[in-house]
Amino acid sequence: MKLLVLSVGGSPEPLRTAIRTRKPERVVFLCSQQSETVARQLMAELGLAEEPEPGKQGARCVTAPVDHLDAVYETTRTAIDDECAAARSAIEIEGDYTGGSKSMTVGLALAVLDAGGSLLVTTGPRPDLTKVTTGQNTRRVQLEALQVRRLEEILIPQALARFAYRDAAEVVRRVLSEAVLSTEHTDRLDKVANLCQAFDAWDRWDLAQAYQLLDQLGGPYTTYLLALKRLIRAAHVLRSDLPAGQEPPKHVELDGHTIDCGLPVHGFEPVEDLLANAARRAADSRFDDAVGRLYRAFELTAQIALWRGFGIRTGDVDVERVRVWLPAEADRLDANRDRQDKVRLAAVQAWELLAGLAAAASGTAMGHGATPTEGTDPTLVDLATAYAERREVLLGALATRNQSLFAHGFDPISEPEYDRVLDTIGTLLDEHVERVRAAATGPAADPLPVFPTSVDALLGTPAS
Questions:
Q1: Residue 369, Ramachandran bin (φ over 0: left; ψ between -120 and 50: alpha; else beta)
Q2: Position 366 pLDDT exceeds 60
Q3: How many CA atoms lie within 13 A of 376 on its CB side?
Q4: Are 312 and 338 in contact (CB under 8 A)?
Q5: Contact status, residue 39 vs residue 129, Cβ threshold 8 Å
Q6: Residue 245 — left, alpha, or beta (φ > 0 → left; ψ -120 to 50 → alpha)?
């Protein structure tokens, strides 16, 4: 169904031209008390049945104060919404703002645009410079500059400020599908949408899709591509069955794609990325999500440290490796195997084991049966020591997470509670990431790049 909304002034001619040109099934006249007579006379002349019920063929009049812009907008938008809700088929919205006062034309134009419609204007001679008395042609209004500026200066920045890349991509795609834009603007906005899709994929840890999208663009996105390669390689080590200390392959298969990941890594890139992800969720006031990511980063740090430092995987603990340093703890773990005959560690258990192993390793030259590199990484010793010194404060912060609805309780996490978790757990992990970066060389010493929060940053050189 085609809906035509017209602002009514003192002359029926532009209305007559618009209706005859556009041939709508449904017409809504936006009138003042003074101009309603013009609309009703035209309805009678053109044989338009008066049908006040929205969604049916015919016409109706709605009135608004002639010089009250806000009231005009609300009246028009409500009428459009009512028509859309009642329509039995897809509705095409058009608005002709030729007639009526300035407030009426502006209010109609804003309401139609906000409802996703198109604007029309009926041109003709204006002998008195105030109104069109003889309609000549009704044409669609070109709104390219308005649409592009609204996108790039208002709608996209609002989404990017919240790191809502999916929202930004969707609003761009919608405009691209509905508006007629120049090739220059279409290409630019298509690139913006693809970039937003890439960062949304990265945010969801769909690293393969993020890499493919950014790889197609190349150029200024090299910094992000290098960071993704490091993330993919570090994650591959954790997912694979490689022995501890063995270099991962330079080429990684991910979702059917081979990615060259020959860059050096410090191993804690996934933790660094999770910390940034948590900050992005907090920027959108999603504090439960933010704390959930901080908790996962806390858990993952212990997992990586145990694997890199002692060759122990928390999902299937090699008890004999524990026995090298902590025989009594090995016996305790051995006695608590699950139904699959595996020893699995939760987050705090993993941290406690790391603290015990690091203390034992730093207190002796080498455990009986240990490899020459086990327990000798000073960054892991510093990490375990920091945990042991702050244990009670860290466990208190974990209790906040455990009481939330997304964990084991029913309480939403407030901003002050998020800040507390960030100041404790976040600080512990940030300090460790700084230490491992300081000990690394080459690209592994660089921080992961900051996600863009403006159109210029999306299209230009990434910040870091």
A1: left
A2: no
A3: 9
A4: no
A5: no
A6: left
Nearest alpha carbon to residue 135 among 116, 156, 147, 120: 120
The DSSP H or E segment spanning 258 is: strand 257-260
CA atoms within 13 Å, Cβ hemisphere of 323 = 9
Q: Is 53 exposed, middle or buried (0-12, 13-18, 19+ CB in 10 A)?
A: exposed
Distance of CA 6 to the CA centre of its chain: 38
Strands 92-96 and 2-7 come out as: parallel
Distance, in Å, from the CA atom of 82 to the CA atom of 447, rounded to the nearest integer, reads 52
Residue 429 near residue 298, CB atoms below 8 Å: yes
Confidence of residue 464 (pLDDT cuts 50, 70, 90): very low
What tokens were used for 176?
């691209």
Handedness of CA 56, 60, 63, 67 (dihedral sign): positive
Query: CA–CA separation, 238 vs 244, rounded Å?
Result: 10
Question: pLDDT tens across 226-252, in order?
Answer: 999 999 988 888 877 666 666 667 778
Check whether 128 has a pLDDT greater than 60: no
The single-letter DSSP state of residue 341 is S
What's the CA gap between 74 and 437, in Å, rounded?
56
Distance CA(306)–CA(330), nearest Å, equals 15
SS3 content of the chain, % helix, strand, coil (to 5): 55, 10, 35
Say whether 227 sits in a helix, a strand or coil: helix
pLDDT band at 448 (very low <50, low <70, confident <90, very high): very high
Q: Is 216 helix (H, G, I), strand (E, B) or coil?
A: helix
186: pLDDT strictly greater than 60? yes
> β-pairing, 92-96 with 118-123?
parallel
Phi, psi of 17 (to 5 degrees): -60, -45
Between CA 463 and CA 460 the distance in angstroms is 9
d(CA 370, CA 358): 13
State pTM to two decimals.
0.81
Rounded (5°) CA angle 10-91-31: 20
Provide the token pair at 374: 């086990």
Dihedrals φ, ψ of 62, to 5°? -125, 145
Residue type, 35: S
State which CATH number among 3.30.420.40, 3.40.50.10770, 3.30.365.10, 3.40.91.80 fits the domain covering 2-141. Answer: 3.40.50.10770
The pLDDT assigned to 372 comes to 41
Mean pLDDT in residue range 399-407: 78
Which tokens belong to 247?
Answer: 């270099």
Domain boundaries, the chain: 2-141, 148-261, 269-439
